[in-house]
């Protein structure tokens, strides 16, 4: 018997094991605590293990889609189709004759169009109640974290253990959100939303939007300087050694521009991210006036990064406390303009990369 995508054995008793779906079974199999030798060899298989993980995920998603397909009546799919037909009639839109049967993915299907739209609309409802977001944070997994490096195996790279990366990143993200909401690194938080994505090279990263309480809003340039920095710390200061290493390892863009015209961010000789940034003796910030110009002093401090000497022009904005604690890419941006609200929330809930495939009739005999 299958209930909401979960397979159960109706005849099972307390002394018998219940049947489980693919997800808990594979999760248990990939747990390396007390792991069997056969499974340990599996997780050390490199690209074959990555293929195994992908296939198991496809199995899980196929089970979910099959359940949705077989229960369209319970999901009121016909009502959805009737609404679409009514709207098309009102707008005088003629749809081509459909091939096959339309299947509606409900908002409970993670990653589907309805799921992303509902998430965006929920986020905008939060904005309507609590106001515009104050901070936009991007937190990226660091494959060099000790929790990953010490458990991935001697001859493996971090990408060979995607389940380990995901597990460690999830734990770090929970701690980061606790620092923001409970420990109040930026002050009292009224509301927040975040989403987790996976880069093409496999590293998970989170986009986080924070709405601060009225008493903790960033209203002046001094307020911005208290939480965001866009400069290299002084390496001569012994207290800055850990932070300096973290900045040069995770928070340097490129280098690009004249230093490296072959950088992936370059298009027609210009950096798509607008680096290198201009020097600024102080932060220029107007509340509700858009993104601030962070302080980037021409103080002569430089660092050797990826074979190039770089200065404050290439530093990505960060929070010193969070960067030193988590030793990962944590970009912190102040976003106080109303105009950025929809863009930021749509960016957070843009969904996964997709491709459109068109099937055409190439029957030359009929032609």
Automatic annotation (TrEMBL):
Residues 41-210 form the Helitron helicase-like domain. This is Helitron helicase-like domain-containing protein.
């Amino acid at each position: 018997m299958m209930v909401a995508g979960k397979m159960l054995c109706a005849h099972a008793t307390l002394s018998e094991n219940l049947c489980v779906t693919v997800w808990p079974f594979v999760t248990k199999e990939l747990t390396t605590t007390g792991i069997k030798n056969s499974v340990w060899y599996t997780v050390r298989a490199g690209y074959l293990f990555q293929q195994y993980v992908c296939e198991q995920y496809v199995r899980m998603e196929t089970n979910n889609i099959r359940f949705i397909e077989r229960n369209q009546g319970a999901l009121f799919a016909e009502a959805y189709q009737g609404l679409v037909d009514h709207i098309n009639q009102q707008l005088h839109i003629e749809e081509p004759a459909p091939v096959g049967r339309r299947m509606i993915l409900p908002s409970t299907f993670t990653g589907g169009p309805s799921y992303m739209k509902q998430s965006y609309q929920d986020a905008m409802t939060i904005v309507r109640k609590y106001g515009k977001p104050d901070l936009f944070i991007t937190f990226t997994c660091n494959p060099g974290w000790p929790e990953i490096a010490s458990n991935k195996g001697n001859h493996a790279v971090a990408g060979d253990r995607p389940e380990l990366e995901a597990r460690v990143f999830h734990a770090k993200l929970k701690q980061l959100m606790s620092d923001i909401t409970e420990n109040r690194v930026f002050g009292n938080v009224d509301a927040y939303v975040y989403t987790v994505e996976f880069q093409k090279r496999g590293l998970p990263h989170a986009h986080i939007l924070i709405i601060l309480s009225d008493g903790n809003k960033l209203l002046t340039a001094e307020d911005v300087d208290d939480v965001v920095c866009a400069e290299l710390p002084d390496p001569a200061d012994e207290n800055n050694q850990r932070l300096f290493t973290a900045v040069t390892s995770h928070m340097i863009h490129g280098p690009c521009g004249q230093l490296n015209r072959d950088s992936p961010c370059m298009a027609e000789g210009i950096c798509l991210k607008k680096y290198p940034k201009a020097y600024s003796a102080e932060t220029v910030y107007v509340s509700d006036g858009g993104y601030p110009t962070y302080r980037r002093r021409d103080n002569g401090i430089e660092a050797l990064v990826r074979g190039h000497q770089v200065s404050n022009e290439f530093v990505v904005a960060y929070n010193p406390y969070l960067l030193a604690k988590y030793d990962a890419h944590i970009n912190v941006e102040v976003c106080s303009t109303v105009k950025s609200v929809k863009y930021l929330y749509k960016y957070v809930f843009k969904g996964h990369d997709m491709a459109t495939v068109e099937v055409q009739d190439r029957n030359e005999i009929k032609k």
